[in-house]
Amino acid sequence: MIEDFVAGIASKLGEYLVAPIGRQFGYVLFYKSYVEDLKNEVKELETARQRVQHVVDEAWCNRKPIQTAVEDWLESVKKESKEAENLLKHGESEKSACFRGWLPNPVVRHPIGRKVKKITKVIHGLHQKSQNSNFEKVYYENTPIGFVNATTSTARPVDKKEDGLKSRALITGDVMKAIADDRVRVIGVYGPGGVGKSKLLEDVERRVKEENLFDVVAMANVSRNPNLKRIQKEITDVLGLHLMNEKTVRGRAYRLREALESDPKKNVLIILDDLWEKLELKEIGIPCGDDNKARGCKLLLTSRNRDVLRIAMGSEQEFRLDELKHEEARRLFERTMGNRVNDPEFETWVDGVVKNCGGLPLLIVPLAKGLKHKDLAAWRNASTNRDLSDVKSLVELSYNDLKEERIRSLFLVCALTSGRISMRDSLVYCMGLGLFKKFSNTIQKARDRLIEDLHTL
């Protein structure tokens, strides 16, 4: 029994003493073999690096983001390969034999051989890693811009310039409250052309993403003559859906609706700008009921006509966006123009220029940009001679969009007084023009019709 115990101790001592001693001698005796192994591993690793780098370069050209693990691997390969090359050069430059080449020089070979053995394992590990399944696809797809994540919802510093227009800030705040209200599914913003409805939607979209109110936000421009394929593409692009292989509008609508309904837990906001008439949501692929009421998602809409929002699209809350008052219009002009607006040579002409824009940001901003580098003659001309081309196009579009002749006549009555006319005077003018013959059994009926027509405007 004592003999077995002694034999066991001797065996263990052999493991703990002989093996390490043998390893130390191996660094000297098998030095050349270790060096050859390292050279082969470096060569194989370089082949693997070139293969991965080619795929990475191709992905980069296609604007695909590269996996972090792949980028880290390339950096490690670069670092370890450089270290291996330096070690091999150092070994070649040292005198590794003594006694006229008869015996290896242990003082030189031992430390270099140990380093060679160690780095060979590292190089081999990197090579094995490149054959991993994770390296089959070195890139990943960008998160669709419609998906709100930690990056898009990160709050950014507030730009104080954006808070300069109080009327816009108030409307934006009201719209944000309606969007956050679970009881409201469809929200509308209406107002004349050029007042900034599209800009307001952009601000709301940004805030919704910053405050992380929805999981998915998609926006599309409908326009006067809706192109269903284009609208579908604008929505599917931000959702990361590739549906253009679907040949029919109906097929794309089915796939889009399927995607939007795939996860009931996701909160989805769809923003549709510039509606001129009823838009059939099911033809786009937006989930809705038979009454064209959005289902499973929230809608934010804009139109010049309130009836399009509340009657055709079933909006539950609408907000009117008016022209800017003179003070705010001037502030917007000054903000766009910059310091030149304070130049005494031009300052006296600012009010006239701003007034000619009629409180429409669509006219104020481009005019301010255009005058920024113009001389005094251009300022005087902009102040005293109104260029009616842009204003005319906006008014003409609004007028032509009115379907009934009675409403068009009421539009002209209001235009004659720049909209500053009392209800009583409007009623007198309209009755004098015979606009309410069908409704003039009583004054009250004519007045009720006038109120309804004014709402249409």
Description:
The protein folds into 4 domains: 2-135; 160-320, P-loop containing nucleotide triphosphate hydrolases (Rossmann fold); 326-388; 402-456, no CATH class. Helix content is 58%, strand content 7%. It has helices spanning 2-29, 31-61, 68-93, 106-130, 166-180, 197-210, 228-239, 249-260, 281-284, 306-312, 326-337, 344-347, 350-355, 361-371, 376-384, 388-400, 405-416, 423-432, 443-456; strands at residues 97-98, 103-104, 186-190, 216-221, 268-275, 298-303, 317-320. The strands form 2 sheets. It has a 5-stranded parallel β-sheet, sandwiched between helices. A two-stranded antiparallel ribbon has the order 1-2. α9 links the parallel β5 (268-275) and β6 (298-303). The protein is elongated. Residues 180-338 form the NB-ARC domain.
Question: Kindly, what is the distance between the CA atoms of the first and last residues, rounded to a whole number of angstroms?
Answer: 111 Å
The average pLDDT value, as a whole number, equals 77
Relative strand content: 5-15%
User: How many helices in DSSP terms?
Assistant: 19
Oligomer: single chain
Q: Can you write the helix and strand succession as a string?
A: HHHEEHHEHEHHEHEHEHHHHHHHHH
Name of the level-1 CATH class of the largest domain: Alpha Beta
Supply the helix-strand structural class. alpha/beta
Assigned CATH superfamily of the largest domain: P-loop containing nucleotide triphosphate hydrolases
- CATH-defined topology of the largest domain: Rossmann fold
Portion of residues within helices: 55-70%
Give the low-pLDDT segments: 97-103, 153-163
Largest sheet: 5 strands, parallel
Strand order of the largest sheet: 4-5-6-3-7
Backbone CA Rg: 38 Å
Q: What is the overall shape? A: elongated
| Total beta-strand segments | 7
Number of domains: 4
Question: What's the architecture of the largest domain, going by CATH?
Answer: 3-Layer(aba) Sandwich
